[in-house]
């Protein structure tokens, strides 16, 4: 993506390409950019280049080079923001109905520990993430269908409360692709999460669709189990105040008086 973004921006700017070619600066920049990619990817040449990758592969970009390319891509996109508008615009913020409780850095732990009979599904998101914005209406629809007394849905903005991301080991780096992250809590403890994380700290590819969430988290079974627990709780007799023990009645009083 870091390499394709400048190329796509260049394609969108084809009408102005002639003016670019008329200036040596732009032509030289394009040649140097292409030369960097070719040198790093061309096997006869790349074998002699140093690398910081864990697997030691010199013919692929390391993390430092990827960050540099992404930074340069952001500059190119800002310079061509008019032509790149359709690519960079975020989906609109979801403002529809939902049964979701929003946590902060203090209330999330308190709520999870308050009643351990309640099962929680919590989404860790950030407002700047396009994937989180796209998943927002799906998650809201799931909360409308499955929320009940024993099964609740929550969200926490890790972009705002960064210590929460550290506490629950959810990386906010765009390179790890861990946003959004769904975690299932039962008894106040994490049971499972999606996407899963590999040994390098990257998210395993997983599609955030309604069908996948229902299947992976077994929402139908969780909902039925939560409904049974809530009904059982409603049928338990309430504790009534204990009636005071009658005091001894003096002799001579009738049973009616007693």
Automatic annotation (TrEMBL):
<dbReference type="InterPro" id="IPR013766">
    <property type="entry name" value="Thioredoxin_domain"/>
</dbReference>
<dbReference type="InterPro" id="IPR039101">
    <property type="entry name" value="TMX2"/>
</dbReference>
<dbReference type="InterPro" id="IPR037463">
    <property type="entry name" value="TMX2_thioredoxin_dom"/>
</dbReference>
<keyword id="KW-0472">Membrane</keyword>
<keyword id="KW-0812">Transmembrane</keyword>
<dbReference type="Pfam" id="PF00085">
    <property type="entry name" value="Thioredoxin"/>
</dbReference>
<comment type="function">
    <text>Endoplasmic reticulum and mitochondria-associated protein that probably functions as a regulator of cellular redox state and thereby regulates protein post-translational modification, protein folding and mitochondrial activity. Indirectly regulates neuronal proliferation, migration, and organization in the developing brain.</text>
</comment>
<keyword id="KW-1133">Transmembrane helix</keyword>
<protein>
    <recommendedName>
        <fullName>Thioredoxin-related transmembrane protein 2</fullName>
    </recommendedName>
</protein>
<feature type="domain" description="Thioredoxin">
    <location>
        <begin position="78"/>
        <end position="231"/>
    </location>
</feature>
<comment type="subunit">
    <text>Monomer. Homodimer; disulfide-linked. Occurs in both reduced and oxidized monomeric form. Oxidative conditions increase homodimerization. Interacts with CANX. Interacts with ATP2A2.</text>
</comment>
<dbReference type="GO" id="GO:0015036">
    <property type="term" value="F:disulfide oxidoreductase activity"/>
</dbReference>
<keyword id="KW-0732">Signal</keyword>
<dbReference type="GO" id="GO:0007420">
    <property type="term" value="P:brain development"/>
</dbReference>
<feature type="region of interest" description="Disordered">
    <location>
        <begin position="230"/>
        <end position="258"/>
    </location>
</feature>
<dbReference type="InterPro" id="IPR036249">
    <property type="entry name" value="Thioredoxin-like_sf"/>
</dbReference>
<dbReference type="GO" id="GO:0031966">
    <property type="term" value="C:mitochondrial membrane"/>
</dbReference>
